[in-house]
Amino acid sequence: MSLTITVIGLGQMGGNMALTLKAAGFEVAGSDVFEQARSRLAAQGLTVVAPEELPASDVYLLSLPTSAHVREVIEQSPGLLALAPKGSVIVDTSTSDPAVTRELAEKVIAAGLLWLDAPVSGGPKGAASGKLGMLLGGDEHTIERVSPMLEAMSAKRTHVGGPGSGHVVKLANNYLCAAHLLTTAEAVAMAAKAGVDPAACLAGLNSGSGRSAVSEVNFPEWILSERFDSGFTTGLMRKDLRLARDAAEQLGIPSPLLQAVVDAWHANPEQPSDSDDFNHITTPILARASQAEEQS
């Protein structure tokens, strides 16, 4: 089945996803509220349109910063509820508030459209290579309908439940990632203070039960290399942690460790700043170990 796709949100993730889908042979248009983003993708060969000129498509793929932006695209006149052809699919790859997602999914389905939340991991590199990981929240019929698109975008897809479930699991994942950055940095700092080279420490951790994607990927790729160019910002991680905390509170679940991680990430808004790469949360922890070593 040939799908026509409109990608809404042409940032690092959405823009790369659009180009990947175009390269895979799909008919793709892209849209963004910022003319600069549209011009950048047009220069790379993508068909772009202004937000008020969205074409009729089989799929509307959203890659937006927050649930508020998703709501605006869907509901604000003329939003997708009014513009999208009956039977078309709205796929939200953003990391959104699950409560808002479920509310919007009900409205989308009531309007004769189909819904899939499909938050992604793998960063801009994964989006550009078609090697993203995707968590899918929706029914199996909808997933089957857009499976050619999903296969072109991702290396791994996990169906975790109905609408909103993808966003629930994504928040759980990002909570663990945020926690692992803190705990792994403290473990590496402790080892460094005891005279163990950080790279050797990580090799040891990654051979044992303490390993994680943070120790296996983030530390060598972005932290020890001091590149800090993952494409995901501290501000976005802070937003996701607040969403995870709010979701736990709405469910009435005591989550003292989650709250401690939220507090740690918000303790100093300038170190790192919201615009910094999220891996910079480890910098003050590792720096304290270096300072202690110099003073000893």
Automatic annotation (TrEMBL):
A GO term, aspect molecular function: oxidoreductase activity
Residue ranges of every copy of the 6-phosphogluconate dehydrogenase NADP-binding domain listed in the record: 4-161
Oxidoreductase listed as a keyword: yes
Bilayer-spanning residue ranges: none
Highest taxon, organism lineage: Bacteria
Annotated EC: 1.1.-.-
Keywords, ordered alphabetically: NAD, Oxidoreductase
Pfam families in the record: NAD_binding_11, NAD_binding_2
InterPro entries: 6-PGluconate_DH-like_C_sf, 6PGD_dom2, 6PGDH_NADP-bd, HIBADH-like_NADP-bd, HIBADH-related, NAD(P)-bd_dom_sf
Gene3D superfamilies listed in its UniProt record: N-(1-d-carboxylethyl)-l-norvaline Dehydrogenase, domain 2, NAD(P)-binding Rossmann-like Domain
3-hydroxyisobutyrate dehydrogenase-like NAD-binding domain sequence ranges: 164-281
Keyword GTP-binding among UniProt keywords: no
PANTHER family: 3-HYDROXYISOBUTYRATE DEHYDROGENASE, MITOCHONDRIAL, 3-HYDROXYISOBUTYRATE DEHYDROGENASE-RELATED
Name listed for the protein in its UniProt record: NAD(P)-dependent oxidoreductase
Source species of the chain: Halomonas alkaliantarctica
